[in-house]
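RECORD TYPE: inverse folding
INPUT: structure tokens
STRUCTURE:
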């Protein structure tokens, strides 16, 4: 009897702890015991009669529990938990248990019977395919989900490069064997998505290397909400083009999350979320996975493309549920979080830079750092009275060893002048005139707010205009891009950087920032209306304020002109401020700040035209004695496509290196094609391209094993059609 009392007492303490924990992070929805028991029986595929036998009660007793006519005593709850293979605390708290790795599986969506096919997720192609865009979209989504307004969002980008045993163990935890067949069947070179898959599979097989990119946020809401109905979880993991955002939040298209899947060679992303509001009595390690493939057939069955990773839902056909994981499973999938702060970790499997500009781990680290700093420097600036909205860091690992330690991005190091301007504004240290190099001049710019097509509450007076804040400050002489203005709202993400034209002759270099909407710090109606207005004027890339379908559908005619006038007024205000300083000068030198603003710079040297160069070359000698090479070419920007005529040479110790012939034609691999003359024409706008070639043994001056080979990429004498 004493043991029974101890057990009952422990269960009561467990129940109290569970209730207390629910109170700490939102009560959530607590199930009745009947609902919990019914769900567990269905999930386990266990009849009531079998449970009755295991627990040692009559089937009628189990039926009464499952239908809510009675509730079992504590000792029976413990026996039920043992029979179902769950922890006693799960049964007492009526929450879903942690799933074991053996319960996890990939479940693919069957193709519709009407024969329609999906060639891939179009949302993934809404943005440029590079890591800077990924950093922008992921960080914006994190800022939009900021949980405690008094604390910044912590955003971390962690790269993991896996090879050898580390790669083998990860692929095993991912159930790679069950999805690899689908990947290969979906890898159809006739489709864009298929060509990306082919390249990804070939790269994995050729190098035995896989890059993971984990994007963590802390002090964010997490993927709250039910499994299938409306909520953050369903919008991110199950739905496309559904943002559920409003007000000051950045995205309105539901496209930002697609950048995560687009950054994977395989369209594969895993998630681990700590919830700000409990779901079914739990809030830690809600995990799921989604694989985005085009239509494909396998084993005589047709599949729509998408697949989900989780536990099989026995109540829904061909459906996988998210699962509550233990720490070991999270670690095996490189998704364990550092603490219990709410937020989400996204793992991009097979992360890469689709533009081809970045390939190795160190370059990817630099690109991510630059992407976050370029777009969110202002979000990371804090003042004495208010802290930053964001803290961001980037780190890189290779097989568990640090390659680049975690380093938080310092906005003042990346944008010193403009960070100084925003900091001065937050602290109320701006001035009405410039008297020193560190001063920040503040002015206002009016934004006319057009009427909405659907009026608000009857009798409601809507603001007609909004006063945005313009900040101007001198910048250093070595600033590579002076005289620019940065537009931003709400979260202070940079929407657009633009060089100001028609400036006074001899002006000193400066940087300017335009804070609009809620970024002004005002919570009045005109700031809120301006926020909504500018939000509708942003295209999916969030890189301008311009005419959009959303703007046309929401506001009356003339809204676009209001946007244009606003941006023009900001530039004109800067010109007037600079001229105003000039007018205050005397006939001799004038004040110091005027001398600074009117310093004449030496004429800038014209930019020299760059030329294509070989970025990397890999090769070996075949059994026939020929060199087989794979060459990556780095291409400078230019309007016309590059047409090159690659040349192979044997390297000799003295004299010029000796050219050798190619055996047959070169083989284009990435972003290039053969011309009718056998040269390589590279895709418009491509920054890198890859081709393969084999040398002609009969042209070798010595056997290949006795020499090294180099490849040059001179321009071809060929007219580009």
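DESIGNED SEQUENCE:
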């Amino acid at each position: 009897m004493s043991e029974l009392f101890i057990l009952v007492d422990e269960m009561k303490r467990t129940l109290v702890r569970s209730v207390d924990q629910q109170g700490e992070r939102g009560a959530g929805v607590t199930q009745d015991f009947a609902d919990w028991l019914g769900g567990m029986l269905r999930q386990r595929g266990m009849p009531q009669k079998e449970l009755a036998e295991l627990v040692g009660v009559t089937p009628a007793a189990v039926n009464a529990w499952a239908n809510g006519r009675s509730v079992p005593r504590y000792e029976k709850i413990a026996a039920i938990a043992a029979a179902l293979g769950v922890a006693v605390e799960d049964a007492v708290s009526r929450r879903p248990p942690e799933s074991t790795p053996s319960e996890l599986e990939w479940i693919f969506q069957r193709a519709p019977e009407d024969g329609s096919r999906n060639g891939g997720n179009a949302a993934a192609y809404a943005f440029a395919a590079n890591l800077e865009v990924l950093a922008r979209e992921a960080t914006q989504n994190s800022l939009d989900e900021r949980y405690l307004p008094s604390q910044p969002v912590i955003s971390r980008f962690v790269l993991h490069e896996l090879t050898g045993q580390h790669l083998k163990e990860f692929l095993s935890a991912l159930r790679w064997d069950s999805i690899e067949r689908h990947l290969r069947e979906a890898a159809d070179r006739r489709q864009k998505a298929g060509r990306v898959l082919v390249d990804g599979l070939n790269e994995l097989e050729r190098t035995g290397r896989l890059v993971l990119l984990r994007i963590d946020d802390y002090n964010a809401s997490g993927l709250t909400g039910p499994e299938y109905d409306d909520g953050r979880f369903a919008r991110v993991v199950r739905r496309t083009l559904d943002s559920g955002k409003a007000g000051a939040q950045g995205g309105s298209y539901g496209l930002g999350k697609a950048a995560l899947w687009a950054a994977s060679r395989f369209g594969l992303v895993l998630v681990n979320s700590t919830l700000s509001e409990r779901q079914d009595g739990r809030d830690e390690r809600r995990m799921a996975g989604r694989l985005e493939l085009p239509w494909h057939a396998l084993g005589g069955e047709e599949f729509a493309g998408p697949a989900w990773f989780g536990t099989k839902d026995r109540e829904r056909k061909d459906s996988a549920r998210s699962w509550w994981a233990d720490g070991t499973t999270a670690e095996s999938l490189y998704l364990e979080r550092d603490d219990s702060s709410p937020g989400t970790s996204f793992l991009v499997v097979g992360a890469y830079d689709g533009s081809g500009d970045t390939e190795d781990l160190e370059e990817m680290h630099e690109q991510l750092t630059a992407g976050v700093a370029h777009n969110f420097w202002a979000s990371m600036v804090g003042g004495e009275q208010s802290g930053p909205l964001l803290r961001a860091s980037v780190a890189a690992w290779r097989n568990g060893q640090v390659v680049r330690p975690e380093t938080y991005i310092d906005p003042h190091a990346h944008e010193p002048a403009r960070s100084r301007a925003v900091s001065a504004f937050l602290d109320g240290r701006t001035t009405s005139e410039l008297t020193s190099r560190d001063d920040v001049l503040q002015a206002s710019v009016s934004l006319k707010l057009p009427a909405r097509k659907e009026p608000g509450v009857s009798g409601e007076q809507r603001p007609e205009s909004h006063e945005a804040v313009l900040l101007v400050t001198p910048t250093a002489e070595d600033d590579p891009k002076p005289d620019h203005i940065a537009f931003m709202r709400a979260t202070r993400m940079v929407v657009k950087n633009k060089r100001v034209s028609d400036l006074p002759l001899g002006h000193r270099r400066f940087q300017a920032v335009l804070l609009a909407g809620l970024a002004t710090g005002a919570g009045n109606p005109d700031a809120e209306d301006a926020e909504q207005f500018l939000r509708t004027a942003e295209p999916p890339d969030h890189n301008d304020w311009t005419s959009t379908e959303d703007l046309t559908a929401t506001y009356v005619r003339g809204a676009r002109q209001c946007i244009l006038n606003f941006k023009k007024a900001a530039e004109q205000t800067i010109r007037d401020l600079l001229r105003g300083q000039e007018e205050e000068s005397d006939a001799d030198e004038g004040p110091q700040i005027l001398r600074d603003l009117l310093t004449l710079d030496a004429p800038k040297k014209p930019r020299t035209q760059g030329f294509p160069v070989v970025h990397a070359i890999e090769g070996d000698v075949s059994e026939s004695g020929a060199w087989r090479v794979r060459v990556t070419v780095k291409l400078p920007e230019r309007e016309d496509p590059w047409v090159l005529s690659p040349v192979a040479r044997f390297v000799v110790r003295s004299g010029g290196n000796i050219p050798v012939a190619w055996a047959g034609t070169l083989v284009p691999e990435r972003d290039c094609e053969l011309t009718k003359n056998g040269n390589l024409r590279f895709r418009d706008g491509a920054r890198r391209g890859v081709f393969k070639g084999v040398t002609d043994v009969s042209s070798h001056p010595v056997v290949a094993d006795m020499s090294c080979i180099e490849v040059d990429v001179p321009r071809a004498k060929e007219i580009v059609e």
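NOTES: The chain has 20 helices and 27 strands.
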